[in-house]
Amino acid sequence: MLTSVIYRNSSGTTTLLDLPASIQNGQCLRNQQPVQTVPRILSARAPEQAYPNVEPKGLKRARLLRNIPHTEQDHHHSLQALIAASLQEIGSAIGQRQWLLPRQPLLSSDENPLRTSRKGKVDQVDQVALEPHTVLSSISNIFSSPDDIADRLVSNPSNLCTRLVLGSHAYHIPPRSKFILSDVTRFGHVPAAFSKRFAQRCFDFIVMDPPWPNRSVRHAKAYKTSESCSKDPFLCVLPVLNNNLRSDGYVGIWVTNKATIRQVVTLSLDQQGFQLYEEWIWMKTTVDGDPVTPLDGLWRHPYEVLLLFCRKQRPKCGTASDAAEPAIVSPLATRVPRHVFVAVPGHHSQKPCLREFIEPLLNDAADYQALEIFARNLTAGWCSWGDEVLKFNLEAHWDKVN
């Protein structure tokens, strides 16, 4: 089994991982030795220097700070202090070596044929049902366009990867993976649609990266944000948690650094019967470990946070006390463990694959079900769902099989 970990301290609170390697690692089954079955991932060029600094200075910065509530400022100060300590720890541990594994760059443009070909299908009727299940062959899977497999569960039941051709583009499909190529906001009956394909309460882990409002992403047209949706994508998928998550399962949600987004997530999950369990902070650095943007920036933070939830009244494993955490009082209050994951970024919007870090928390890491919503790549053994679910499995992102 590959590993993406470059450094991890004994307590597991600080980890330096390689982002492309984490995704490549997620393309093979657990404990599988992928000598001849997994191609090597191609990556965007790693930043060697920090991005241009556009942060306000002097009086302008002071005026902006006055408009930020003290609770929010204190929240980010606590994150930044933790991150700074982690960066110093990693720097001392690895010395002069670079903060990533060797990467093979992707030289072509970062195209997205799925979004282009399915552009006219995004705003169809709300009430739709999943089409018949499509089981991929280990030999040949050729379709004229992405529309031929849209809105249906597609699975690769083999223990080996297979190849899927959609029109003029080919995709690498990892073993035992399932996916649904569909805009999640189009499903008026999400729980009913899923119950046709999955047993109730079957997922041990559900993770999502909702397309939160983001001005820079919207201007760059990197992906469709919630401003262009008739329904809030995050609220659309909330029913999945109650209907398809096991009682002892976990929910991971990537949030932006805006306090309003965190508030929506924490309060929504609290109302659904979940409590915050841990915070996973992804810190982005250059190849030499410098923050890609100022750590104390106001307009752009160099870190993102995954909030990990579990059902209320669940005992916290590995703690001195078995008492359940109280309900969340403030969306910025944190009484849970925090873990810092440091990684040099890859392609825009590409998140690390955290499979090897969530599995130790599950009851049976060798036999579990996981679902990723708003996914942009597939993971072996998992089910993935989204209108860009095959984006980073495009063969252009992968080298030839070793």
Keywords:
12-stranded mixed beta sheet; alpha/beta; Rossmann fold; 9 helices; 402 residues; 3-stranded mixed beta sheet; single chain
Count of helical segments?
Answer: 9
Q: Kindly report the name of the CATH homologous superfamily.
A: Vaccinia Virus protein VP39
What letter string, H or E per element, gives the SSE order? Answer: EEHEHHHEEEEEEHEHHEHEEEHEEE
Using the 3D structure, state the CATH architecture. 3-Layer(aba) Sandwich
Structural class: alpha/beta
Uncertain segments are 119-128, 216-223, 317-329
Number of domains: 1
User: Strands of the biggest beta sheet: in what spatial order?
Assistant: 1-2-14-12-13-11-10-15-16-9-6-4
For the largest beta-sheet, the strand count, sense and barrel status come to:
12 strands, mixed
| CATH C-level | Alpha Beta
Q: How does this model look, in words?
A:
Helix content is 22%, strand content 23%. It has nine helices and 17 strands. It has helices at 19-25, 58-66, 70-94, 113-117, 190-195, 215-220, 233-244, 259-271, 355-358, and strands spanning 5-8, 14-17, 39-41, 131-135, 142-143, 152-155, 162-166, 169-173, 178-181, 203-208, 245-255, 274-284, 303-311, 338-343, 370-373, 383-386, 398-401. It has a twelve-stranded mixed β-sheet with strand order 1-2-14-12-13-11-10-15-16-9-6-4. It has a three-stranded mixed β-sheet with strand order 5-7-8, with no helix packed on it. It has a two-stranded antiparallel ribbon with strand order 3-17. Residues 119-128, 216-223 and 317-329 have low confidence and may be disordered.
